[in-house]
């Protein structure tokens, strides 16, 4: 098994005028080439931080991050990162947005444009190429952001709650699309999500993180029967129900909550909403 | 059948909405004209019945005649063009200069912290009192006038645009960095275009400020221009001339403002609907 | 006159545009400068400070401004002092205007009144106070003197009801009279006597380098002064009206008439000792100078004298 | 059965410079006093519009809206409406935010303050009364908004995706809290949600809307065994799994999607994301 | 055991961060002072070596002496106080008036549409040229000066604050309406407090503009004040006096700006962290 991503003893603390906040604590994680891993855990447990570390956007306070055996020291076009929202530039049309990676590398040209056009068509965006982001639906924009990320043909795809702002149906469609794309290209993927169903349906392994500071609580392997199927179909597998219930049980336990504890939530801060 | 009934009431709604909107627009136009007419009539009456001094306030008829004469004699246009050219130069330079300065501050955060108190003090300097410095630096001529206008606009432009630069959602910068973009590319691809609406809307403010700056500049030193006409009008105690010039200024400034609004509306549509 | 063929360029800054400077515009409109082979580029730099600044910084070659400015400059120790070389007006140009018509006027009528004067530090204010003192009136004790209004806004202040008396330049005084809003009682120009009021000046270094040009310039001015002396106000008004867009010809004639009558327009640019001392007296009394600048230091009459020959 | 809310033949079209958009079309719906109804449906199908009509914020283009037999003609303190986000005033502390209803009615006084303090305590916010919204977690803020809405003791509670921005766990806790509060006070509730699980777990009836313009597609009655239990517990009921799957099946059918249709989503506009 | 090790490296990080921040702050202060010193020295040298004209630019030593003399003679303080009082009055009135006007526009959207072009034209009117109107309307005194300052600030304040009023998230207004709030309550409970940060930040801009307005006003008519000193300095061609006054203006304006920043920082904490 080739290891594509490796986090060894990674800790990270954010330092600011108010002091230091430990976001990730002594994390060890290997992701094999072509593997699809999901990260789930309560808000503020360090999921985005882990993606940022993998992408080389921030340097770990301690430990090392490796990409295919080499230390990650900064952003690298081999890694594609899709942020929680689409962050398409509103002043560029979809095609120009998708081409930005080439523009930055200085390699925008007929070849790059042909590749982007092909991808846009593949993602059902051929007709929207000249339109501006605000003219598109949320689902189309997420797809455009995906095209932008995939256009430079990354080996690794990092996805930070890519579907959380979307409608149920669009969500199911995009899950299938991403899953297929990742499989077809043999891309290694790390998905952060709050939706346990999504995590279970899409990935080979689900990593459950403890409440902050981020430590791995458990890792759950997804049965082969579910892994073999598209996410939207996986949900109809007989094994899916039990898997999902096991996952939720683990989360509710790990977070000290569970039925009947509702009134105690006042002490639990949620940095997101 | 239900489809058709449905369409008919929706059309009716649309029709009602449109005619209401048209009525309001008409009302607004009528009120605008009425306000203007009332002002003119009040002015004329006030002067004629001696409530206010004709010497100081002139009156609309006289001003119209003066404007007609000026236009006929062919001197109104050159004066206006001079001032418009100076104002345009001043506000383009002020906006570009302010943007460039803002870029500098964004690029070097330490510089921005160092310069902060200086900018504040410069901003509250009465530029009128700096007249002699402009004359020394740029000679008694167009350059001084344009620089006065620039001095009035540049600091506030810098502060506004720099503020906007810093407000750009960090995630847009992240997108560029993720593709290995340099700091220059981050600025060029994300920060600058993301601030374009703000830059254009400071243009709007700067149109007004540049007019003030140019008129003040023409008070310092000028051979022609509307500010020159004003100061000359004061000199020869011809307030009709002063007020006529002010009216031309108002009209031209409104036109320039309208042009900037047009530019704003022409911005890539993605900008507007955010 | 005559002079060489190539037109030398001279940049001139005037402190304001006024009928008080009629000879300058006559020289321009009658082509006297052109006759001397000069191409004069006239620029209004509103205010003595801006005009002097333009002169000192080389923005203009010759300034038309009050002599007192050159004294201030000299007293602050200029390396390259500003030299007065030709006077254009030789009296103050303001008038005493009353709100009410008077059959007879006595300066003592001003006692206890509200007097709207010119702003502190300027020549009109100094000449005004000098005149009052001359008539035994202490400007700061015997009447209420308002000195806080900007030159350009004094007519507005008076017209809106401030003051019983006001010190006004032309054409304001004549316009008020014509409109029946004020009545000219006396001339501060007559009362304060002869003095170098508005003078052409240049930096010493410029004069040394351009003696020829300064001479020709003075010649043209002198020619214009004579022309003004010899022509009736109406003709003078016609000659200068192109510089006074929007000004009523009647008013212009009246103003020129008045200035001519009290000999405000100098004939010949020579500044004599008596005039100089009068200026110093007035400034000294006003408390704006503490030492008397000798005439030789900043006045050079040679060009004016040559021109008269 | 007392009818608390009645929509009879309600249609609504938004009119603007661009023309009219039909948002709700010929809707008939009765909600009994004390009943808990959920509205689900694709984005843009008119759910928020229906709540706005019920709250009297907008007048229906056609048809009538009745509250306990009386025609609704404007906002009415008998109806409490919780918007999609908390919209607490950032410049007021939690207590002053919760008291705003009384301030507007001009009845803020010791009695109102006592009542609000009691509610805050009941919702685990006693310690946060003097704190400002930005100092609180998302879950606490949603609870504060709930207190604000409940303080004036409304007979009807309208909830527009109240939990969609929250973490899974906090969400479960708040679902229980709202459910209990509604039951305890005999309040009539209408909940809009995208989360089918939530709809199934909380309500007595689930109303499934068609894609725009909003028409009722189906109404699903929730079995008594699930209705009897707290939402977090309801999910563990044996009947819950089948109910949930039926619901999802209906949605996927009604929206013309379903497995395998992923690539067709390009034509489906999503006005939200 | 691991807990302690963990704490030690985090503390080290914190320490590093703090000392780095302190170093940068120190650097900024040093650069600010160095810049100031360099400016002073350059100025002094430029005058002493005759690169620039002493008459026009004076020099720091002379200005310091002049300020010392003015302070010793007891005339600096009254002049400064006069101007500060006028500026404060002008900027408080301008801000309040602008807010009130903005409220009017918000309340009556038709009025806002009717007045829009008039506001634009008024905004680009050079207020200096309106001197006579102020003097006629408010007499030659403090009132005219204050009104000049108000005229400079009020329109831009109105436009900015009205813009903000309209930007308030409609859902906040909905909250008030849902409780049966009237339009007045919507304004008082949601629109106005929601715009307070904008109002305070226009205060910041208005401090600068009011200074300009007051100085211009003092140019029109004044017996005392820093603008009066400047004009007097020009009259007697004493640029040392002019520059001294400008320096006092800069210093006092910076102090006022600091005070407004303090007010901004004192705002209910909920405002800032949005
Ligand atoms: N730039 C930053 N500066 C300081 N602290 C930060 C920063 N980014 C994140 N944190 C803190 O680090 C911790 C982990 O944050 P992170 O964003 O990685 O969590 P997350 O799991 O992605 O949460 P969410 O599910 O809300 O996105 C949190 O406590 C957060 O407050
Ligand atoms: N104020 C408005 N003006 C014009 N059209 C509107 C307005 N509000 C909503 N609409 C349109 O009416 C339709 C229904 O909108 P509504 O907000 O009720 O949908 P929704 O079901 O609540 O959607 P979501 O799940 O995204 O909140 C949509 O097509 C929307 O674009
Ligand atoms: Mg995150
Ligand atoms: Mg909605």
Automatic annotation (TrEMBL), chains A, D:
Pfam entry (one): ABC_tran
SUPFAM superfamilies given in the database record: P-loop containing nucleoside triphosphate hydrolases (SSF52540)
The keyword ATP-binding is annotated on this UniProt entry: yes
Gene Ontology MF terms in the entry: ATP binding
UniProt keyword terms in alphabetical order: ATP-binding, Nucleotide-binding, Transport
Region (Disordered): 251-273
UniProt superkingdom: Bacteria
Name recorded for this polypeptide: ABC transporter, ATP-binding protein
Source organism of the structure: Thermobacillus xylanilyticus
Lineage: Bacteria, Bacillati, Bacillota, Bacilli, Bacillales
Gene assigned in the entry: txxe37-ytlC
From TrEMBL, chains B, E:
Keyword set includes Membrane: yes
Residue span, ABC transmembrane type-1 domain: 80-264
Location relative to the cell: Cell membrane
Membrane topology of the entry: Multi-pass membrane protein
Swiss-Prot/TrEMBL GO biological process terms: transmembrane transport
GO cellular component, one term: plasma membrane
Keyword Membrane (UniProt): yes
Subcellular location, principal: membrane
Key words, A-Z: Cell membrane, Membrane, Transmembrane, Transmembrane helix, Transport
Leader peptide range in chain numbering: none
Stored Gene3D superfamilies: MetI-like
TM ranges: 21-43, 88-108, 120-139, 145-165, 209-234, 241-263
Domain of life of the organism encoding this protein: Bacteria
Family annotation (Pfam families): BPD_transp_1 (PF00528)
Family: Belongs to the binding-protein-dependent transport system permease family.
Name of the protein: ABC-type nitrate/sulfonate/bicarbonate transport system, permease component
